[in-house]
């Protein structure tokens, strides 16, 4: 072992390895796709319910796919704090989106900046979703989230000028991210095989 | 003897290195456990890329030294081992880092 021991690098590697399963992508893609489909069916309110269901489904998927394959780890408290802060930022951004969406449908008797935001809702949604991807990418140290952010910006800015309906972009982007996530998940499952003898680490009942 | 003593004085003051931690595999284990609160055996094995037997034997040595606490339990009827550094282990690792820095600082150019 001639290489330098870099504790920060070790911690970052451990942290990123925990998020290489593609589950964040699967859920982000699923949410966007469902939100787009809900818009088509005129049931946008259902999309917000999906967020709450999705968070518990994400935790369950972590238990089913990730932990049995790469093990369980409890990171230092600063990591948990960063996740909570990121979640708050993302929720605030989407709450803002909710206000914009409400403004767009209701209109009238509102501050100018909100009217402006409602008129340019594609840009507002695009920037908010892209910012959310950046926050998630920074929190979980996953670089591909920045690529999603860039893709989101390109699609929504283009959408602002092309006047296609919002659901068109939501479903397309959601499908792309979902497929990327599923590819990563399949690769992860193939790379890390399940232990056939249960959890490792107890003497006598596991092989090497 | 007198000559030897004289030479000893000229050598850099190498502090006492903790040999339990100094072994490369155990150093990796300690470093990985130092940066997290706790981890299970599987996670540590994936991160250190040590074999099951190797990891198990090094963990036993670290446990005997009082540096690592090993908790065994059953989750969904499957054995599960959680590991974390004890306070003594954290202090020893910090001391080890200081000692190693000292060793290299004391060496002549």
Provide the helix percentage of chain B: 55-70%
Give the C-level CATH assignment of chain B: Mainly Alpha
Beta fraction of the residues of chain B? 15-25%
Q: Judging from the principal axes of the Cα atoms, what is the shape of chain B?
A: elongated
What is the average per-residue confidence, as pLDDT of chain A, rounded to a whole number?
Answer: 80
Distance between the termini of chain A: 22 Å
Strand order of the largest sheet of chain B: 1-3-2
Number of discrete helical segments of chain A: 8
Counting H and I runs of at least 4 residues, what is the number of helices of chain B?
A: 6
CATH superfamily of chain B: Winged helix-like DNA-binding domain superfamily/Winged helix DNA-binding domain
Structural class per helix/strand content of chain A?
A: mainly alpha
The number of E-state strands of chain B comes to 3
* Low-pLDDT regions of chain B: none
Short summary of the structure?
Chain A has 208 residues and is an all-alpha fold.
Which labels suit this protein?
heterodimer; A: mainly alpha; disordered C terminus; B: 109 residues; alpha+beta; Arc Repressor Mutant, subunit A; three-stranded antiparallel beta sheet; 6 helices
Describe, in plain words, how this protein is organized in 3D.
The complex is a heterodimer of chains A (208) and B (109). With 208 residues, chain A is mainly alpha-helical. Chain A has one domain. Helices cover 76% and strands 1% of the residues of chain A. Chain A contains eight helices and one strand, in the order αααβααααα. Chain A has helices at 7-17, 23-40, 45-70, 77-106, 112-119, 121-140, 144-162, 166-191; one strand spanning 73-75. In chain A, α4 runs antiparallel to α6 and α7 packs antiparallel against α8. Chain A is elongated. Residues 198-208 of chain A have low confidence and may be disordered. With 109 residues, chain B is of the alpha+beta class. Chain B has one domain: Winged helix-like DNA-binding domain superfamily/Winged helix DNA-binding domain (Arc Repressor Mutant, subunit A). In chain B, 60% of the residues lie in helices and 19% in strands. Chain B has six helices and three strands, in the order αααβααββα. Chain B has helices spanning 2-10, 19-22, 24-34, 41-48, 52-64, 87-106; strands spanning 36-40, 68-75, 78-85. A three-stranded antiparallel sheet of chain B has the order 1-3-2. In chain B, a hairpin with a 2-residue loop joins β2 (68-75) and β3 (78-85). Chain B is elongated, with a radius of gyration of 18 Å. Chain B starts with a helix and ends with a helix. The A-B interface holds A 1, 5, 7, 10-11, 13-14, 17, 70-77, 192, 195, 198-203, 205-208 and B 24, 27-28, 31-32, 34-47, 51-53, 56, 72, 75, 78-82.
């Amino acid at each position: 072992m001639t290489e330098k021991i870099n504790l920060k690098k070790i911690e970052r590697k451990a942290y990123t390895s925990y998020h290489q399963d593609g589950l964040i992508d699967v859920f982000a893609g699923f949410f966007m796709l469902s939100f787009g489909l809900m818009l088509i069916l005129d049931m946008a309110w259902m999309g917000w319910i999906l967020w709450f269901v999705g968070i518990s489904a994400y935790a369950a998927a972590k238990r089913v796919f990730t932990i049995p394959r790469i093990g369980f780890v409890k990171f230092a408290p600063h990591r948990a704090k960063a996740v909570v802060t990121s979640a708050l930022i993302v929720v605030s951004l989407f709450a803002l989106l909710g206000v914009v969406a409400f403004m767009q449908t209701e209109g009238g008797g509102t501050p100018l900046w909100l009217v402006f935001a409602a008129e340019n809702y594609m840009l507002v949604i695009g920037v908010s979703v892209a910012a959310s991807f950046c926050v998630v990418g920074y929190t979980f140290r996953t670089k591909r989230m920045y690529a999603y952010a860039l893709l989101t910006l390109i699609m929504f800015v283009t959408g602002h000028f092309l006047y296609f309906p919002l659901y068109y972009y939501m479903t397309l982007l959601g499908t792309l991210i979902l497929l990327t996530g599923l590819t990563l998940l399949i690769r992860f499952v193939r790379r890390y095989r399940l232990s056939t003898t249960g959890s490792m680490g107890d003497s006598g009942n596991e092989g090497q | 003897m007198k000559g030897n003593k004289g030479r000893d004085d000229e050598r850099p003051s190498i502090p006492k290195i903790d040999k339990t931690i100094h072994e490369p595999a155990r150093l990796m284990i300690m470093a990985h456990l130092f940066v997290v609160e706790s981890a299970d055996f599987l996670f540590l094995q994936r991160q250190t890329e040590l074999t099951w037997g190797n990891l198990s034997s090094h963990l036993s040595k670290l446990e005997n030294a009082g540096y690592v606490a090993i908790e065994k339990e059953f989750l969904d009827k499957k054995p599960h081992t959680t590991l974390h550094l004890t306070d003594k282990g954290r202090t020893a690792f910090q001391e080890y880092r200081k000692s190693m820095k000292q060793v290299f600082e004391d060496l002549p150019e």
